[in-house]
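Task 17 of the worksheet. Students: predict the tertiary structure of the chain below and write it out as C-alpha cells. Keep your answer in the requested format; marks are given for formatting as well as content.
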Amino acid sequence: MGKKPPLRYTIYRQLLDDILTGRINAGEKLLEAELASRFRVSRTPIREALLQLEREEFIVHTKDVGAVVRKTSPEQVAETLDLVALLEGHATQLSVAKITEKDIGLLTGLHLSMQECAEQDRFSAYVELNAKFHDFFTEKCGNKKLRDTVVDLRKSIYRVLAEGQTLPRHMTEYIVSHQRIIDAATRGDFLNAGEFMNTHVLDFKRYILERYDRLKYATALSIEHPNWD
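Model answer:
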C-alpha cells in the first residue's frame, strides 16, 4: 500500500483544482477559518497549502485582506505565451525528427475531430482535443524538463486556454495552423514544423491580447456612456 500524501498536499491539490476549473474564481478570498472548516482540519495544513499556492503565483497575500486568487493580467499571458511558443516550437522540432506513421495518424485523427467540433460549435470539446494535440509534441520530444516547464507555464494561464475565448473569431486560422504542422511533420520537415508551431502559439497570443483590448474598450465605453445600448 502506498504512503498517504501529507494533508497539506491533499488540500493544496484540491484548492488548485478548484482554481483551475473555476470553482474558485479570480479575486475570491481564501479564508483560513472557512477552509479549515471545509476540510475539517486545523489551520496549520491550510496555511501550508496556501503558501504553496502563493509560491506558484496562483494566489497573493494582501494586507488586511489575506489570501486572494490572482487575476490573469494581459502582461502575464503575453510573457507566458512567448515562452510557450519558444519551447513548444523546439519540442516540435525534436518530435518530428523521430515521428512515425502511427504518430501522424494520431495527429490527423485529433485534427479531424477538432474540425468536427468547430463545425458543430462544440468549443469545450475542441479545447480538450487541442490540449492533446499540443501535449503530443511535448511528450514525444523526450525532454522531461522541457515538458514539465511547458505544463507549468500553461497551467499558470489555464483559464485563458480552457475558456477558448478566441475560438469563434479565429477558428479557421487555428485549423489551418494545425494542418501546416501536420503536413510538415508528414514530410519529416522538423525545422518548418517547429516554426509553424511557434507562429501558431504567437498568433494565439495576439488574438488573446486583442480580446483584452476589446474588453478594455467596451468597459471604457460603458463608464463614459452608462446608458449605452
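Marker's comment: The beta strands are 29-30, 59-62, 66-69. The first strand starts at residue 29 and ends at 30.
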